[in-house]
């Protein structure tokens, strides 16, 4: 599998219904979302790795080649330095994207493997659950944590979510194939 960037949406009025299965990628700014897109695509610069976290405020639509389903990369949330208006705009764009969208198969929620469960992550997950979107939790930067520490964080998330997060690393490629298999199975049941 690989990814092809098809569209970048900054404004609500650019949103169009896309009648193919979609998997959301969501996570706090700096969690490693762009790096994961690049890792999945096996390309170095498909998604811009943010030098200034929280700067990208767009929805990025990637087609999964050759299957034809989409991965929709949502703008990172919870960046402290972004203004209230910017945050409101973020919420509106996501609300509108999800509104009446029956094609969303799941949300991959990226969580930092070094951090205990954070409130903004739990809020995001609750929001997706309210929209009846299944959650696929993924722990990022797993190359940075020792297995024991990672297992503890993984168990904490499992207690909260009742699903065990998959540990990945964009640096080492840990569980890249497993994640692709999970995405394929979810989008093409
Ligand atoms: P985004 O804001 O969520 O898109 O995060 P980025 O992909 O831009 O990554 C944020 C920072 O974390 C960058 O400095 C990356 O090099 C680093 N990073 C991302 N993924 C990994 C990983 O799997 N391992 C390690 N060691 N660093 C990572």
Quick overview of this protein structure:
By secondary structure, the protein is of the alpha/beta class. 33% of the residues lie in helices and 22% in strands. InterPro entries: G_ENGB_dom (IPR030393), GTP-bd (IPR006073), GTP-bd_ribosome_bio_YsxC (IPR019987), P-loop_NTPase (IPR027417).
What does this structure look like?
By secondary structure, the protein is of the alpha/beta class. The chain has a single domain (2-187), classed as 3-Layer(aba) Sandwich (Rossmann fold), CATH 3.40.50. The protein is 33% helix and 22% strand. The chain is built from 5 helices and 7 strands. It has helices spanning 33-41, 84-98, 119-130, 147-161, 176-187, and strands at residues 2-9, 22-27, 59-65, 70-73, 104-112, 135-140, 166-167. Strands 1-3-4-2-5-6-7 form a 7-stranded mixed β-sheet, sandwiched between helices. The protein starts with a strand and ends with a helix. The model has no long low-confidence stretch (mean pLDDT 91). Bound molecules: guanosine-5'-diphosphate. The site of guanosine-5'-diphosphate has 19 residues, from helix 1.
């Amino acid at each position: 599998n690989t990814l092809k960037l098809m569209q970048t949406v900054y404004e609500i009025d650019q949103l169009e219904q896309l009648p193919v299965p979609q998997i959301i990628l969501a996570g706090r700014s700096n969690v490693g979302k762009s790096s994961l897109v690049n890792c999945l695509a096996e390309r170095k610069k498909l998604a811009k790795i943010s030098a200034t976290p929280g700067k990208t405020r767009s929805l990025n639509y990637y087609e999964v080649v050759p299957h034809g389903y989409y991965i929709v990369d949502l703008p990172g949330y919870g960046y402290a330095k972004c203004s209230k208006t910017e945050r409101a705009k973020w919420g509106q764009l996501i609300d509108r994207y999800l509104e009446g969208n029956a094609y969303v198969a799941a949300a991959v929620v990226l969580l930092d493997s070094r951090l205990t469960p954070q409130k903004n992550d739990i809020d995001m997950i609750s929001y997706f659950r309210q929209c009846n979107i299944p959650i696929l939790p993924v722990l990022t930067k797993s190359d940075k944590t020792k297995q024991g520490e990672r297992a503890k964080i993984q168990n904490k998330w499992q207690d909260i979510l009742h699903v065990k997060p998959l540990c990945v690393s964009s640096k080492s490629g840990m569980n890249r194939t497993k994640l692709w298999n999970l995405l394929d199975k979810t989008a093409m049941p």
